[in-house]
Specification:
Blueprint (H helix, E strand, L loop, with lengths): L1 E4 L14 H9 L3 E5 L10 H7 L2 E3 L2 H5 L4 E6 L3 H5 L6 E5 L6 H9 L3 E4 L14 H20 L7 E3 L2 E3 L3 E5 L3 H12 L3 E5 L4 H8 L3 E2 L5 H4 L13 H15 L4 E4 L14 H5 L6 E4 L16 E3 L5 E3 L9 H16 L3 E2 L2 E2 L6 H6 E4 L2 E2 L2 H4 L1
Parallel strand pairs: 1-2, 1-4, 2-3, 4-5, 5-6, 9-10, 9-12, 10-11, 12-13, 13-15
Antiparallel strand pairs: 6-18, 7-8, 14-15, 16-17, 18-19
Helix pairs in contact: 1-2, 1-12, 6-7, 6-12
The structure holds nicotinamide-adenine-dinucleotide.
Function: The transhydrogenation between NADH and NADP is coupled to respiration and ATP hydrolysis and functions as a proton pump across the membrane.
InterPro entries: Ala_DH/PNT_CS2, AlaDH/PNT_N, AlaDH/PNT_NAD(H)-bd, NAD(P)-bd_dom_sf
Protein name: proton-translocating NAD(P)(+) transhydrogenase
Protein backbone atom coordinates (compact mmCIF):
# COMPACT_ATOMS: atom_id res chain seq x y z
CA UNK A 1 0.00 0.00 0.00
CA UNK A 2 1.46 3.34 -1.05
CA UNK A 3 0.49 6.03 1.45
CA UNK A 4 0.94 9.71 0.60
CA UNK A 5 0.91 12.69 2.95
CA UNK A 6 0.91 16.20 1.52
CA UNK A 7 1.50 19.52 3.20
CA UNK A 8 -1.61 21.22 4.64
CA UNK A 9 -2.49 24.08 2.32
CA UNK A 10 -5.44 25.63 4.12
CA UNK A 11 -4.99 29.04 5.69
CA UNK A 12 -3.66 28.78 9.24
CA UNK A 13 -3.47 24.97 9.36
CA UNK A 14 -0.32 24.08 11.29
CA UNK A 15 -1.04 20.41 11.98
CA UNK A 16 0.02 17.41 9.91
CA UNK A 17 -1.39 13.93 9.34
CA UNK A 18 1.75 11.89 9.95
CA UNK A 19 4.65 11.99 12.39
CA UNK A 20 7.92 10.04 12.36
CA UNK A 21 6.37 7.74 14.98
CA UNK A 22 3.37 6.94 12.78
CA UNK A 23 5.54 6.57 9.66
CA UNK A 24 7.15 3.62 11.45
CA UNK A 25 3.75 2.23 12.43
CA UNK A 26 2.44 2.52 8.87
CA UNK A 27 5.53 0.76 7.54
CA UNK A 28 4.97 -1.97 10.13
CA UNK A 29 1.46 -2.41 8.68
CA UNK A 30 3.16 -3.16 5.36
CA UNK A 31 2.82 0.26 3.73
CA UNK A 32 5.28 2.58 2.05
CA UNK A 33 5.01 6.24 3.02
CA UNK A 34 5.86 9.29 0.95
CA UNK A 35 5.71 12.73 2.51
CA UNK A 36 5.80 16.13 0.84
CA UNK A 37 8.66 18.38 1.93
CA UNK A 38 7.59 20.81 4.64
CA UNK A 39 4.67 18.70 5.88
CA UNK A 40 5.78 18.73 9.52
CA UNK A 41 7.15 22.26 9.79
CA UNK A 42 4.13 23.66 11.66
CA UNK A 43 4.54 20.87 14.21
CA UNK A 44 8.33 21.30 14.50
CA UNK A 45 9.07 18.11 12.55
CA UNK A 46 11.92 18.51 10.04
CA UNK A 47 11.84 16.56 6.74
CA UNK A 48 14.93 14.64 7.82
CA UNK A 49 13.04 13.09 10.75
CA UNK A 50 10.48 11.64 8.35
CA UNK A 51 13.26 10.26 6.18
CA UNK A 52 15.01 8.78 9.23
CA UNK A 53 11.74 7.04 10.16
CA UNK A 54 11.64 5.38 6.72
CA UNK A 55 9.48 7.74 4.65
CA UNK A 56 10.45 9.06 1.22
CA UNK A 57 10.39 12.87 1.23
CA UNK A 58 9.39 14.34 -2.14
CA UNK A 59 9.45 17.96 -3.27
CA UNK A 60 5.85 18.60 -4.39
CA UNK A 61 2.35 17.21 -4.33
CA UNK A 62 2.48 15.75 -7.83
CA UNK A 63 5.46 13.54 -7.01
CA UNK A 64 4.01 12.56 -3.63
CA UNK A 65 0.62 11.63 -5.06
CA UNK A 66 1.87 9.81 -8.17
CA UNK A 67 0.64 6.22 -7.77
CA UNK A 68 -0.57 6.71 -4.18
CA UNK A 69 -3.30 4.34 -2.95
CA UNK A 70 -4.08 6.38 0.15
CA UNK A 71 -3.89 10.12 0.89
CA UNK A 72 -3.83 11.20 4.54
CA UNK A 73 -4.61 14.80 5.49
CA UNK A 74 -5.68 16.91 8.43
CA UNK A 75 -8.17 19.02 6.45
CA UNK A 76 -9.92 18.02 3.23
CA UNK A 77 -7.65 17.97 0.17
CA UNK A 78 -7.56 20.97 -2.17
CA UNK A 79 -8.70 20.84 -5.80
CA UNK A 80 -5.06 20.50 -6.93
CA UNK A 81 -4.54 17.53 -4.64
CA UNK A 82 -7.78 15.86 -5.69
CA UNK A 83 -6.96 16.23 -9.38
CA UNK A 84 -3.59 14.52 -8.81
CA UNK A 85 -5.22 11.46 -7.17
CA UNK A 86 -5.46 8.22 -9.04
CA UNK A 87 -9.06 7.00 -9.56
CA UNK A 88 -10.37 5.01 -6.61
CA UNK A 89 -7.74 6.27 -4.19
CA UNK A 90 -8.61 6.30 -0.47
CA UNK A 91 -8.63 9.67 1.32
CA UNK A 92 -8.87 10.11 5.09
CA UNK A 93 -9.14 13.61 6.59
CA UNK A 94 -11.35 15.85 8.71
CA UNK A 95 -13.43 16.69 5.63
CA UNK A 96 -15.96 18.86 7.48
CA UNK A 97 -18.31 17.17 5.04
CA UNK A 98 -21.53 18.91 6.07
CA UNK A 99 -20.09 22.33 5.30
CA UNK A 100 -17.44 21.69 2.63
CA UNK A 101 -19.86 20.73 -0.15
CA UNK A 102 -17.48 21.64 -2.98
CA UNK A 103 -14.74 19.44 -1.56
CA UNK A 104 -17.13 16.49 -1.29
CA UNK A 105 -18.27 17.03 -4.90
CA UNK A 106 -14.67 17.09 -6.12
CA UNK A 107 -13.84 13.87 -4.25
CA UNK A 108 -16.94 12.25 -5.72
CA UNK A 109 -16.01 13.37 -9.25
CA UNK A 110 -12.49 11.99 -8.78
CA UNK A 111 -13.94 8.60 -7.84
CA UNK A 112 -12.20 8.71 -4.46
CA UNK A 113 -13.19 6.57 -1.49
CA UNK A 114 -13.15 9.43 0.99
CA UNK A 115 -13.55 9.06 4.75
CA UNK A 116 -14.51 11.93 7.05
CA UNK A 117 -12.67 11.33 10.30
CA UNK A 118 -15.23 13.47 12.14
CA UNK A 119 -17.85 10.79 11.34
CA UNK A 120 -16.03 7.95 13.10
CA UNK A 121 -18.70 6.76 15.55
CA UNK A 122 -18.13 7.28 19.26
CA UNK A 123 -18.26 3.62 20.17
CA UNK A 124 -15.78 2.05 22.56
CA UNK A 125 -13.88 0.19 19.83
CA UNK A 126 -13.34 3.44 17.90
CA UNK A 127 -12.06 5.56 20.79
CA UNK A 128 -8.51 5.18 19.56
CA UNK A 129 -9.55 6.75 16.22
CA UNK A 130 -11.73 9.48 17.71
CA UNK A 131 -10.29 12.69 16.28
CA UNK A 132 -13.08 14.84 17.73
CA UNK A 133 -11.98 13.83 21.22
CA UNK A 134 -8.24 13.96 20.62
CA UNK A 135 -8.47 17.47 19.20
CA UNK A 136 -11.19 18.80 21.54
CA UNK A 137 -9.16 17.78 24.56
CA UNK A 138 -6.23 19.89 23.35
CA UNK A 139 -8.57 22.74 22.38
CA UNK A 140 -9.92 22.80 25.94
CA UNK A 141 -6.40 23.01 27.32
CA UNK A 142 -5.37 25.69 24.88
CA UNK A 143 -8.49 27.78 25.53
CA UNK A 144 -7.37 28.21 29.12
CA UNK A 145 -3.83 29.09 28.03
CA UNK A 146 -5.23 31.71 25.62
CA UNK A 147 -7.42 33.11 28.39
CA UNK A 148 -4.48 33.27 30.79
CA UNK A 149 -2.41 35.02 28.13
CA UNK A 150 -5.05 37.65 27.41
CA UNK A 151 -5.87 38.19 31.09
CA UNK A 152 -3.92 40.95 32.78
CA UNK A 153 -3.87 39.19 36.14
CA UNK A 154 -2.70 35.83 37.49
CA UNK A 155 -4.68 32.60 37.78
CA UNK A 156 -3.37 31.21 41.10
CA UNK A 157 -3.65 32.80 44.49
CA UNK A 158 -0.20 34.14 45.39
CA UNK A 159 0.76 35.26 48.86
CA UNK A 160 3.67 37.65 48.61
CA UNK A 161 5.41 40.16 50.89
CA UNK A 162 3.65 42.88 48.92
CA UNK A 163 0.26 41.33 49.56
CA UNK A 164 -2.02 38.66 48.21
CA UNK A 165 -2.96 38.12 44.57
CA UNK A 166 -6.50 36.75 44.39
CA UNK A 167 -7.17 33.61 42.33
CA UNK A 168 -9.00 34.02 39.02
CA UNK A 169 -12.63 32.94 38.81
CA UNK A 170 -13.19 30.74 35.77
CA UNK A 171 -16.59 29.61 34.48
CA UNK A 172 -16.71 26.80 31.89
CA UNK A 173 -19.97 26.53 29.91
CA UNK A 174 -20.41 23.16 28.21
CA UNK A 175 -18.68 20.17 29.77
CA UNK A 176 -17.92 17.79 26.93
CA UNK A 177 -14.38 16.66 26.11
CA UNK A 178 -13.06 20.22 25.65
CA UNK A 179 -14.87 21.60 28.70
CA UNK A 180 -13.55 18.87 31.00
CA UNK A 181 -9.97 19.57 29.95
CA UNK A 182 -10.56 23.32 30.34
CA UNK A 183 -11.75 22.72 33.91
CA UNK A 184 -8.76 20.51 34.70
CA UNK A 185 -6.29 23.00 33.19
CA UNK A 186 -7.79 26.01 34.97
CA UNK A 187 -7.69 24.07 38.24
CA UNK A 188 -4.02 23.16 37.69
CA UNK A 189 -3.29 26.87 37.23
CA UNK A 190 -4.96 27.54 40.56
CA UNK A 191 -8.20 29.18 39.48
CA UNK A 192 -11.51 28.85 41.30
CA UNK A 193 -13.60 26.97 38.75
CA UNK A 194 -17.34 26.57 38.19
CA UNK A 195 -19.01 24.87 35.24
CA UNK A 196 -22.40 24.29 33.66
CA UNK A 197 -23.96 21.88 31.19
CA UNK A 198 -27.44 20.69 30.31
CA UNK A 199 -26.55 16.99 30.63
CA UNK A 200 -26.98 15.75 34.22
CA UNK A 201 -24.14 13.24 33.79
CA UNK A 202 -21.66 16.11 33.74
CA UNK A 203 -22.39 17.20 37.33
CA UNK A 204 -20.39 14.37 38.87
CA UNK A 205 -17.56 14.84 36.33
CA UNK A 206 -17.30 18.53 37.17
CA UNK A 207 -17.23 17.84 40.89
CA UNK A 208 -14.66 15.06 40.53
CA UNK A 209 -12.31 17.67 39.01
CA UNK A 210 -12.70 19.91 42.05
CA UNK A 211 -14.98 22.44 40.39
CA UNK A 212 -18.49 23.53 41.37
CA UNK A 213 -21.51 22.69 39.22
CA UNK A 214 -24.18 25.24 38.39
CA UNK A 215 -27.37 24.50 36.41
CA UNK A 216 -31.13 24.72 36.41
CA UNK A 217 -31.81 21.13 37.49
CA UNK A 218 -35.45 20.73 36.46
CA UNK A 219 -37.33 17.92 34.68
CA UNK A 220 -36.07 18.98 31.22
CA UNK A 221 -32.47 18.96 32.49
CA UNK A 222 -32.93 15.40 33.77
CA UNK A 223 -33.83 14.32 30.22
CA UNK A 224 -31.42 16.47 28.24
CA UNK A 225 -29.03 13.73 27.14
CA UNK A 226 -29.60 11.69 23.97
CA UNK A 227 -28.92 7.96 23.85
CA UNK A 228 -25.69 8.86 21.99
CA UNK A 229 -24.48 10.96 24.92
CA UNK A 230 -25.00 14.35 23.28
CA UNK A 231 -27.09 17.31 24.40
CA UNK A 232 -30.60 17.87 23.09
CA UNK A 233 -31.60 21.37 21.99
CA UNK A 234 -33.21 22.97 25.05
CA UNK A 235 -36.60 24.76 25.06
CA UNK A 236 -36.77 28.55 24.98
CA UNK A 237 -38.25 28.34 28.48
CA UNK A 238 -35.29 26.37 29.83
CA UNK A 239 -32.80 28.66 28.13
CA UNK A 240 -34.46 31.69 29.70
CA UNK A 241 -34.17 30.12 33.19
CA UNK A 242 -30.58 29.11 32.42
CA UNK A 243 -29.77 32.68 31.33
CA UNK A 244 -31.06 34.14 34.59
CA UNK A 245 -28.98 31.73 36.67
CA UNK A 246 -25.79 32.01 34.64
CA UNK A 247 -26.20 35.74 34.02
CA UNK A 248 -25.91 36.52 37.70
CA UNK A 249 -22.84 34.25 37.88
CA UNK A 250 -21.08 35.54 34.74
CA UNK A 251 -21.11 39.09 36.13
CA UNK A 252 -18.75 37.94 38.91
CA UNK A 253 -16.35 35.91 36.73
CA UNK A 254 -12.92 36.89 35.44
CA UNK A 255 -12.81 34.26 32.70
CA UNK A 256 -15.63 32.52 30.81
CA UNK A 257 -14.87 29.62 28.46
CA UNK A 258 -17.74 28.39 26.28
CA UNK A 259 -17.70 25.02 24.51
CA UNK A 260 -21.40 24.18 24.03
CA UNK A 261 -22.35 22.40 20.83
CA UNK A 262 -25.36 20.46 19.59
CA UNK A 263 -24.59 18.07 16.71
CA UNK A 264 -25.90 19.31 13.37
CA UNK A 265 -27.26 22.60 14.70
CA UNK A 266 -26.06 26.13 15.35
CA UNK A 267 -24.39 26.50 18.74
CA UNK A 268 -26.68 27.82 21.50
CA UNK A 269 -26.04 31.43 22.55
CA UNK A 270 -25.11 31.23 26.23
CA UNK A 271 -23.55 34.65 26.81
CA UNK A 272 -25.53 37.67 25.59
CA UNK A 273 -23.88 40.97 24.74
CA UNK A 274 -25.48 42.34 27.90
CA UNK A 275 -23.97 39.58 30.04
CA UNK A 276 -20.54 40.12 28.47
CA UNK A 277 -20.91 43.84 29.21
CA UNK A 278 -21.70 43.05 32.84
CA UNK A 279 -18.20 41.63 33.39
CA UNK A 280 -15.37 43.70 34.86
CA UNK A 281 -12.91 45.43 32.50
CA UNK A 282 -10.01 43.07 31.79
CA UNK A 283 -12.20 39.96 31.89
CA UNK A 284 -11.75 37.41 29.11
CA UNK A 285 -14.24 35.21 27.26
CA UNK A 286 -13.03 32.39 24.99
CA UNK A 287 -15.66 31.09 22.54
CA UNK A 288 -14.72 27.61 21.31
CA UNK A 289 -18.00 27.34 19.42
CA UNK A 290 -17.29 30.41 17.25
CA UNK A 291 -17.15 28.34 14.02
CA UNK A 292 -20.57 26.83 14.74
CA UNK A 293 -22.13 30.30 15.10
CA UNK A 294 -20.75 31.01 18.56
CA UNK A 295 -21.92 30.68 22.18
CA UNK A 296 -21.12 34.34 22.77
CA UNK A 297 -22.92 37.25 21.19
CA UNK A 298 -20.34 39.42 19.45
CA UNK A 299 -17.58 36.81 19.10
CA UNK A 300 -15.83 36.81 15.71
CA UNK A 301 -13.95 33.96 14.06
CA UNK A 302 -10.18 34.41 14.30
CA UNK A 303 -10.41 37.71 16.10
CA UNK A 304 -10.06 39.02 19.60
CA UNK A 305 -12.92 41.48 20.01
CA UNK A 306 -12.56 44.03 22.82
CA UNK A 307 -15.95 45.35 23.97
CA UNK A 308 -16.60 48.98 24.94
CA UNK A 309 -16.44 47.81 28.56
CA UNK A 310 -12.93 46.35 28.14
CA UNK A 311 -13.88 42.66 27.98
CA UNK A 312 -11.88 40.61 25.46
CA UNK A 313 -13.76 37.95 23.47
CA UNK A 314 -11.31 35.47 21.96
CA UNK A 315 -12.52 33.65 18.83
CA UNK A 316 -9.66 31.48 17.56
CA UNK A 317 -11.13 28.77 15.33
CA UNK A 318 -8.28 26.31 15.28
CA UNK A 319 -7.18 25.99 18.90
CA UNK A 320 -5.65 22.51 18.36
CA UNK A 321 -3.52 24.15 15.67
CA UNK A 322 -2.09 26.38 18.40
CA UNK A 323 -0.70 23.29 20.08
CA UNK A 324 0.21 21.72 16.78
CA UNK A 325 2.95 19.28 17.76
CA UNK A 326 0.72 17.43 20.22
CA UNK A 327 -2.38 17.80 18.06
CA UNK A 328 -0.52 16.25 15.11
CA UNK A 329 0.90 13.45 17.24
CA UNK A 330 -2.55 12.43 18.50
CA UNK A 331 -4.29 12.92 15.15
CA UNK A 332 -1.64 10.88 13.35
CA UNK A 333 -2.13 8.02 15.85
CA UNK A 334 -5.91 8.22 15.32
CA UNK A 335 -5.26 7.78 11.58
CA UNK A 336 -2.99 4.75 12.04
CA UNK A 337 -5.69 3.04 14.09
CA UNK A 338 -8.25 3.90 11.41
CA UNK A 339 -6.06 2.56 8.60
CA UNK A 340 -5.62 -0.61 10.61
CA UNK A 341 -9.26 -1.34 9.69
CA UNK A 342 -8.45 -1.46 5.98
CA UNK A 343 -4.90 -2.74 5.63
CA UNK A 344 -4.75 -6.53 5.85
CA UNK A 345 -1.44 -8.38 5.41
CA UNK A 346 0.10 -5.31 3.84
CA UNK A 347 -2.64 -4.92 1.22
CA UNK A 348 -5.53 -2.49 1.00
CA UNK A 349 -8.82 -4.28 1.76
CA UNK A 350 -11.62 -1.75 2.25
CA UNK A 351 -14.81 -3.37 3.52
CA UNK A 352 -17.43 -0.63 3.47
CA UNK A 353 -19.81 -2.86 5.43
CA UNK A 354 -17.49 -2.70 8.42
CA UNK A 355 -19.33 -0.60 11.05
CA UNK A 356 -16.77 2.19 11.52
CA UNK A 357 -15.84 2.51 7.84
CA UNK A 358 -19.51 2.51 6.90
CA UNK A 359 -20.21 5.40 9.25
CA UNK A 360 -17.24 7.45 8.03
CA UNK A 361 -17.30 6.95 4.27
CA UNK A 362 -18.59 9.98 2.35
CA UNK A 363 -17.81 9.27 -1.31
CA UNK A 364 -17.19 5.99 -3.13
CA UNK A 365 -17.31 4.82 -6.75
CA UNK A 366 -18.25 8.26 -8.08
CA UNK A 367 -21.15 8.80 -5.69
CA UNK A 368 -21.86 10.47 -2.36
CA UNK A 369 -22.73 7.48 -0.18
CA UNK A 370 -23.16 9.11 3.25
CA UNK A 371 -26.87 9.53 4.01
CA UNK A 372 -26.44 12.70 6.08
CA UNK A 373 -24.26 14.44 3.51
CA UNK A 374 -26.45 13.32 0.60
CA UNK A 375 -29.60 14.73 2.22
P1 LIG B 1 -20.01 18.54 22.16
O1 LIG B 1 -18.75 19.09 21.63
O2 LIG B 1 -21.06 18.09 21.21
O3 LIG B 1 -20.70 19.61 23.16
C1 LIG B 1 -19.98 20.17 24.23
C2 LIG B 1 -20.88 20.24 25.46
O4 LIG B 1 -21.83 21.29 25.33
C3 LIG B 1 -21.68 18.98 25.74
O5 LIG B 1 -21.32 18.47 27.01
C4 LIG B 1 -23.13 19.45 25.71
O6 LIG B 1 -23.95 18.76 26.64
C5 LIG B 1 -22.97 20.92 26.06
N1 LIG B 1 -24.14 21.77 25.78
C6 LIG B 1 -24.99 21.75 24.72
N2 LIG B 1 -25.95 22.69 24.85
C7 LIG B 1 -25.71 23.35 26.02
C8 LIG B 1 -26.35 24.43 26.72
N3 LIG B 1 -27.45 25.02 26.24
N4 LIG B 1 -25.82 24.84 27.90
C9 LIG B 1 -24.73 24.23 28.40
N5 LIG B 1 -24.08 23.22 27.79
C10 LIG B 1 -24.56 22.77 26.62
O7 LIG B 1 -19.69 17.35 23.18
P2 LIG B 1 -18.49 16.30 23.13
O8 LIG B 1 -17.30 16.88 23.77
O9 LIG B 1 -18.36 15.81 21.74
O10 LIG B 1 -19.04 15.17 24.09
C11 LIG B 1 -20.39 14.74 24.02
C12 LIG B 1 -20.57 13.43 24.77
O11 LIG B 1 -19.96 12.36 24.06
C13 LIG B 1 -20.00 13.38 26.16
O12 LIG B 1 -20.90 12.66 26.95
C14 LIG B 1 -18.75 12.59 26.01
O13 LIG B 1 -18.35 11.97 27.19
C15 LIG B 1 -19.21 11.61 24.97
N6 LIG B 1 -18.09 10.97 24.30
C16 LIG B 1 -18.06 9.60 24.19
C17 LIG B 1 -17.00 8.97 23.56
C18 LIG B 1 -16.94 7.48 23.44
O14 LIG B 1 -17.67 6.77 24.09
N7 LIG B 1 -16.08 6.96 22.59
C19 LIG B 1 -16.00 9.73 23.01
C20 LIG B 1 -16.05 11.11 23.10
C21 LIG B 1 -17.11 11.72 23.75
Amino acid sequence: VAIAVTRERREGETRCAVTPETVKKLIALGATVSVEAGTGLGSSIPDDDYAAAGATVRPDLATVLAGADVLLKVRGPTAAEISALKPGAVVAAMLDAYREKAGVEALKAAGATAFAMEFVPRITRAQVMDVLSSQANLAGYRAVIEAAYAYGKGFPMMMTAAGTVAPAKVFVMGVGVAGLQAIATARRLGAVVTATDVRPATKEQVESLGAKFLAVEDEEFRNAQTAGGYAKPMSAEYQAKQAVLTGEHIRKQDIVITTALIPGRAAPVLVSAEQAASMKPGSVIVDLAVEAGGNVEGSKANEVVTTAGGVQIVGWTNLPGRIAADASALYARNLVAFLGLMIKDGALAVDLDEEILKAAVVTHGGAVVHEGVKG
